[in-house]
Amino acid sequence: MSLMTDLVTSIHASKQGLTLAELLAKHPELARRTVQRTIAKLIESGQVVAQGEARARRYFGMLPVSESSVVEGDPDSFPSYIPLSEDSRDVLAYINQPPEARKPVGYQHDFLDAYQPNVTSYLPQSIRRQLHRMGKTTDAVEPAGTYSRAVLNRLLIDLSWASSHLEGNTYSRLDTRQLIEHGTAAKGKAAIETQMILNHKTAIELLVENIDSAEFNRYTLMNLHSALAENLLPNPADEGRIRQHAVDIGKSTYRPLATPQQLEVTLDSLLGKANQIRDPFEQSFFMMVHLPYLQPFADINKRTSRLAANLPLFRANLCPLTFLDVPEQAYSRAILGVYEMTRVELLRDLYLWAYERSTQEYLAIKQDLAEPDPLRLIWRDLIKATVREVVINAELDPLSCIQSSISEAVPERERLDVQALIVEELRRLHEGVLARYGLRPLEFARWKARHTD
Hints:
This protein is mainly alpha-helical. It is 56% helix and 3% strand.
């Protein structure tokens, strides 16, 4: 056995960990300096973790149970109910060390360069088969986006709430529903929290409504980020734009690329590879791994990756990944494993668990959903354009505008029904749905003031 293997075996065999003195006692044939140098390399590679200082410093194969992230009740713990592989536990053991004990690292170009679409697989075939079985819907053979449109109302609430919750947003699920369905902001909540929820709603609608043309390119990604970032960044010019400055990652030793030129080139390579991946789950997971790792935007990179990860699932009419019940501490540790170790195992185990939770929700609710109104589906673009025209031209008679809009495009036998749909849309109009029609609050307020009795 090699020197490293001997030391690793001794350390892993001790649940209480070993001090340097105890290691030397177990291996009297080894020189003190040799053992110290070897342990330093093992810590750097993540095979061993250290706790304590000076003579009290102990070395562990994993963190001891009292300090481990599997302790229940600890708000900073990694929940034990999420199954983890041994590889994931190795990642967790390293990430659970305090930042000062972890190695400072920069962006590793080899991580992306080594990935070959449809040859490399972050998700093994067995896991992909399992995901496909879990996510299969009755709409599998329908046009792209059929399923996501059918569950859109529920999706807007669940994904907006869960993704925002991972960023520390304190809105409850009920608060989120009231905001999205009725435009009612929760009392006592900061404006930034309300804005974050509404931005998620707009971004999800952007993906679902443009499913036929959306792909992993600059246009889709920039506009997705812009929707999520609106009114949330210190510099509004950073919305939907490649960052122009260096950034730090809180509680991490990872330092992303700093120069815009490097970001531009690497982002193009990332998107090029993403578009070649054939399996929707592998494509989804690839974006969850590499987009936050690159940090192409000044902020809101993880939120962008979570929504971008749903695009392949929407297109394939698979159940969405809503991140319902995903603990923030689990997600942040999994992402740190990618940042600091370029290891995907912990994030992969979390992805599988999170997707199973999502599918349990959505396969159950799909049975209770009414089929989408076929007339509303066929004329959805005209309906939205007409609602926008009516509101912007507040001085004109709404009914005349509607009739003028539908007279040329809609067959005579369907005109009254389409007109009724548009009138109903106008009656239900509120601030929480304005982005759907490309409207601003001031435009809506002006129209409402003019047409409210």
